[in-house]
Amino acid sequence: MAAAAARRQARLPPEVNRVIYVRNLPFSISSEEMYELFGKYGAIRQIRIGNTKETRGTAYVAYEDIYDAKQAADHLSGFNVQNRYLIVLYYNPTRQNKKSNLKDQEEKLRAMQEKHNVDGEQHAKPQQAKQ
After folding, report:
1. Which of 82, 83, 98, 129 is a good FRET partner for 76, with 20 to 30 A between their CA atoms?
2. 70: burial class by Cβ within 10 Å (0-12, 13-18, 19+)?
3. What pTM value is reported for the model?
4. Could you write out the three-class secondary structure of 29-82?
């Protein structure tokens, strides 16, 4: 009991979060296997497993307690599951948002311009009148 109280008093680094992001998961892993693996470290609020082409092999695991999330991240990072080594990171929304790079934004802008029949030049400097 005293060890748990001491653990609660320890100051955590700022990146530690209740939600952890897991990469390099086997595509065939089930929800039950995820709860069994990550549930060893504490009460889980929610697990979201990626199911699209871009998100397969990833998951978000939300713990009830931040200390349980830290313990899971510390112990399961590099853990071998079905011959794949897990990459466990703390969820960071700003890092996730930075992944949409300039090229993707430009492509979205061009698609919207085509959709709305806008060439993107309507705000350019007006040309001088011909004489």
Report:
1. 98
2. buried
3. 0.67
4. CCHHHHHHHHHHHCCEEEEEECCCCCCCCCEEEEECCHHHHHHHHHHHCCCEEC
Tokens for 78? 């590099």
47 - beta bridge partners? 61
Closest C-alpha among 71, 68, 34 to residue 50: 34
Strand-pair category, 19-23 with 87-90 = antiparallel
Dist CA 92 CA 102 (whole Å) = 20
> Long-range contacts: 60-66, Cβ < 8 Å, 24+?
60/19, 60/20, 60/21, 60/22, 60/91, 61/19, 61/20, 61/22, 61/34, 62/18, 62/19, 63/18, 63/19, 63/20, 64/18, 65/18, 66/12, 66/16, 66/17, 66/18
Alpha-carbon Rg of the chain, whole angstroms?
23
CA 51 from centre of chain: 14
Residue with tokens 């009991």: 1
Cα dihedral 42, 49, 80, 89 sign: negative
